[in-house]
Design a protein that fits this description.
The complex is a heterodimer. Chain A has 13 helices and seven strands. Chain A is an alpha/beta fold. The chains are: A alpha/beta, B alpha/beta.
Chain lengths: 352, 324
């Protein structure tokens, strides 16, 4: 662990062949296309936000490898508990991009996760989703299902009580969990050195009695290999694993943030050199799996997908008053019905 | 069987667990020890450690993991040892348990019960006398239930376990072993959201719940000699409130007294007074009055009587409102 993060691909794309996870050519190309599409979709969201067509959201720039790589190792029966910067995981798991855009445009309908997709809703309060994933792990174990629950959270989350409480539960109850800390060096403006005095986040797992590993979060193959191993271990009763994805938040915290206030241009430049997509492109090129034709095909497909998703999301009508009331309880209590009736009555007189 | 409230609640959990394999209980000291008030006594022997889970000492994770379990299809009953320790789990309750149904548009629900003893009047140490139910009543998505008798306790807990929304289930510490009552052996539900008229009367309605019910009953009895026969309503469910029963009673009697042991300011009595003034102002013959705990930290044993509404203080309130 102290010997630096686990890597399959060096920064210049050179591979350690003995560590290659054995994906087919199609699989490798799929990984590339998912990362490239995630980036394009993320940049499109930023544009939409700047144009006033989307609300505040957390850009995923730089997170493509750690999210796509780890989510690629999931099976449909597994569960995923996202935080709020997980576009790569959503793309990989097949959440319609329309949903993602719609949610950040300010419509709850975006978080209506299609049936059959075991993706939990986005969690905004930092670290608070980790106990849910562990509880889900307890439920899977109780039902004797050979499935795992994977949760994403950031480096800032490791300072929260819920991180500690949830990892402690995971260790004590030996739950089938994979806990992925996306250590992107910053929680808004606060650097990771202000979150912990520990040299790594991975080592925190040992205090809870299970294994922690540190991966190069910009190496999609390293993330895939470690997640696959941890998921297999979880599904077969081996208990939880903490994976620290060592990476960098290349964008602002959210569209309302200005990272130039607290970090140096040189740092961003240095991390840009380690761009996760660029690295994987060099690797694929070396294997003869990437050329300009492939690239333009990937970009074209991404553009089509994104264009369609934006159009779909923007064509969803704004919610009706009842849409905002009906999911508060299974059955609407009389007081809520009265408030809804009063709102409708008001709107009839003063249409918006 | 003649049961006290502890036995009634214990039987409700045991029978629901027998009937529904999705129901499990978790919390601190609830397994081997049977819970500090013995609410979960013998459940571990009956159902084993997979369903009766002694957890680490961590309220947020008890509630947080219960949310994950509930969303994944189980029906957890989480015990918090005392209401004074629920604050550690407030983020999980408010930010997630109450909202998941709405956030996921109904895909993920949290059919979970969070049980805890609440209330003063037992000469307890600090943090063991809290009655902060109003904090939960303001949170959309939560239901808040408070029984006052063994019979109601069983039926309300069964209904809470079977409810598809998260329920905060407050158990009056003072009434746990205060008396016995015939409790049917079979499972039965008392629907949530329905108040109970404890005592029919005229000229005055008194609204209360939980541990205040016996206090109010005693006060109501004591004013009979003065020719006052108040109607007493036990809300049983604080959210959603049975406004209909309250309004109907007040329209009949023309006066309203609310009694709660929580502090007065922003207590549930304030909401009740407000909606009664909205819906029945012209029926009122006197201002709505509240007899409540004071807006101070619940005192320790020696000072508790200054805080806790007594039958005498309630009777004093009744006199004031009748003389208006």
């Amino acid at each position: 662990m102290m010997n630096g993060p686990f890597q399959v691909l060096a920064e210049d794309g050179r591979v350690r062949p003995e560590l290659e996870p054995g994906l087919s050519s199609d699989g490798l190309r799929k990984l590339y296309s998912l990362m490239a599409t995630t980036r394009a979709a993320d940049l499109k969201a930023l544009k939409l936000q700047r144009q006033g067509r989307m609300g505040t959201f957390a850009p995923s720039l730089g997170h493509e490898a750690c999210q796509v790589g780890s989510a690629f190792a999931l099976e449909p029966k597994d569960w995923v508990f996202p935080y709020f910067r997980d576009l790569g995981a959503f793309m990989t798991l097949g959440l319609p991009l329309k949903n993602y855009y719609l949610y950040w445009m300010g419509n709850e309908e975006g978080m209506r996760i299609p049936a059959g997709l075991n993706i939990f809703t986005i969690s905004v309060p930092v670290a608070s989703q980790i106990p849910h994933a562990v509880g889900c792990g307890m439920a899977l174990k109780y039902a004797k299902e050979q499935a795992a629950a994977l949760v994403y959270f950031g480096d800032g989350a490791t300072s929260e009580g819920d991180f500690s409480e949830a990892l402690n539960f995971a260790g004590v109850f030996k739950t089938p969990n994979v806990l992925i800390c996306i250590n992107n060096q910053y929680a808004i403006s606060t650097p990771v050195a202000r979150q912990t005095a520990a040299p790594t986040i991975a080592q925190k797992a040992s205090a809870y009695g299970f294994e922690g590993v540190r991966a190069d979060g910009n190496d999609v193959l390293a993330m895939f290999a470690l997640a696959r191993k941890a998921l297999e271990k979880a599904r077969s009763g081996g208990g939880p694993t903490l994976i620290e994805a060592f990476t960098y938040r290349m964008g602002n915290h959210t569209t309302s943030d200005d990272a130039s206030r607290y970090r140096q241009e040189a740092e961003l430049k240095e991390w840009s050199r380690r761009d996760p997509i660029e690295r994987f492109r060099l690797y694929l090129k070396g294997k003869g799996l990437w050329d300009e034709d492939f690239e333009s095909r990937v970009q074209k497909e991404a553009d089509d997908l994104i264009g369609k998703a934006v159009a779909e999301a923007e064509s969803v009508p704004p919610p009706r008053p009842e849409d905002l009331f009906i999911h508060t309880y299974k059955n609407m209590p009389p007081e809520l019905s009265d408030q809804l009736a009063e709102l409708r009555d008001f709107l009839k007189r003063e249409p918006r | 069987m003649m049961f006290n409230m502890v036995q009634a609640l214990n039987q409700a959990m045991a029978q629901e667990m027998e009937k529904d394999p999705r129901v499990l209980v978790l919390g601190e000291d609830i397994g081997v020890d049977g819970g500090v008030f013995r609410l979960t006594d013998s459940l571990l022997e009956k159902f084993g450690p997979e369903r009766v889970i002694d957890t680490p000492l961590a309220e947020s994770a008890i509630v947080g993991t219960s949310i994950g379990m509930a969303a994944a299809g189980l029906r957890p009953i989480a015990e918090i040892q005392f209401m004074g320790f629920i604050y550690l789990a407030m983020n999980q309750i408010i930010s997630h348990a109450a909202r998941l149904r709405n956030r996921s548009r109904g895909r993920f629900t949290v059919p979970m019960v969070i049980r805890m003893p609440y209330g003063a009047g037992v000469r307890s140490l600090e943090h063991h006398s809290e009655s902060t139910e109003a904090l939960f009543c303001q949170i959309p998505g939560l239901k808040v239930v408070v029984p006052s008798t063994p019979y109601d306790a069983k039926g309300l807990l069964v209904a809470s376990i079977r409810d598809d929304d998260p329920v905060i289930f407050l158990e009056p510490t003072r009434l746990y072993r205060a008396g016995r009552q015939e409790v049917p052996e079979e499972l039965y539900e008392i629907p949530l959201g329905q108040a109970r008229i404890v005592r029919e009367g005229e000229g005055l309605t008194i609204i209360a719940w939980g541990a205040m019910i016996p206090v109010v009953e005693q006060a109501a009895e004591s004013v009979g000699k003065d020719g006052v026969f108040p109607e007493v309503v036990d809300l049983r469910t604080l959210a959603p409130l049975d406004r209909k029963t309250v309004i109907e009673s007040v329209k009949r009697t023309g006066r309203l007294l609310v009694v709660h042991e929580a502090p007065k300011t922003c207590g549930l009595g304030a909401e009740i007074a407000a909606f009664v003034s909205e819906k029945a102002m012209l029926n009122l013959e006197a201002p709505v009055l509240r007899i409540t705990g004071q807006d101070i930290t619940v005192p320790l044993a020696k000072g508790e009587d200054y805080y806790y509404p007594s039958p005498e203080r309630v009777a004093w309130g009744i006199k004031k409102i009748m003389e208006f």
